[in-house]
Amino acid sequence: MLKMLRRLMPPAVVEQRSIQLAGKPVTYTLKRTSRRRSIGLRIDDRGLTVNMPLRASEKWLRSVLEEKAAWVVEKLESWQARKPSQQNWTDGETILYRGEHFTLRIIPSLFDAPPQLHGTQLIVHVSEIDNPALIEKILMRWYRHQALQLFTECIGHFAPLMKVNPGEIKISSARTQWGSCTTRGTVRLNWQLIKMPLHLVDYVVVHELAHLREMNHSAAFWAVVESVCPDYAKRRAELRKWGMSSGE
Q1: How many whole angstroms separate alpha carbon 138 and alpha carbon 125?
Q2: Segment (H or E) for 136
Q3: Which site in 36, 87, 89, 96 is 20 to 30 Å from 130, CA atoms measured?
Q4: Which 3 state secondary structure label does DSSP give 157?
Q5: How many Cα atoms within 13 Å fall on the side-chain side of residue 203?
Q6: Are residue 114 and residue 196 in the same domain, yes or no?
């Protein structure tokens, strides 16, 4: 009966809107669905998304937006400030790896080859030097390979110290999280962590492994984190400057 009722419910309605909040124009995505009972606001790298009940009134929507206006504008400006500039995959560009800047050097070659670090340069041999899509594909494959190696090493180091036994390690491309952990022990870590200093990668790994002991963010959970990462609060604050979250 319940399944039948769900089939009869109207589908979700999505639309783009604009409004003045705290004296500033704000564009947002409005999603109406019969599954919701309240109005919820979410802000990420794609901007503001408002989820509301399918038949909720415009008056209720406006009152919620006006009540949260200052918060919305502040969070949107914060996301905009830390939004990374578009990466160019051309010779001479700067890329990040393990918290350091390297100069990308594109070398013409008969065959494509994995990138190699030489001093402060990352050398990439490619068959088509004027093909940014190809260069990006090669570098993304390299980034993800390096990330998996690093994550495996970090987990291998911290898991015994924390007395946990994680299962599979997976590379994530999540837009809003650096990491996550399931009750079955699967640890997912964002490949972009490979761009960060090692002490931040360690913190995210420890954070996710701690969930194998405490699947929450209680005082007990943070005690587990602190047992191997005493300055976790400092690292956590630094990580926030990179955007997203560590699974919190």
Answers
A1: 10
A2: helix 132-162
A3: 96
A4: helix
A5: 23
A6: no
Tell me which residue of 158, 138, 245 sits closest to 193, measured CA to CA: 245
Q: How does pLDDT run across 120-160, given as a tens digit for each residue?
A: 999 999 999 889 899 999 999 999 999 999 999 999 999 99
Q: 128 with 153, same domain? A: no
State the total domains in the chain.
3
Termini Cα distance of the chain: 37
Statement: residue 83 has pLDDT above 80: no
Domain range for residue 131? 94-142
Radius of gyration over every alpha carbon of the chain, rounded to an integer in angstroms: 22
Determine which helix (DSSP H) or strand (DSSP E) holds 148, and give its type and residue range. Answer: helix 132-162
Residue 81's pLDDT is 65
248 inside domain: no
Q: For residue 165, which amino acid is it?
A: N
Examine the domain organization and report whether 61 and 138 are in the same domain. no
Residue-wise pLDDT tens digits, 166-224? 999 999 988 778 999 998 999 999 999 999 999 999 999 999 999 999 999 999 999 99
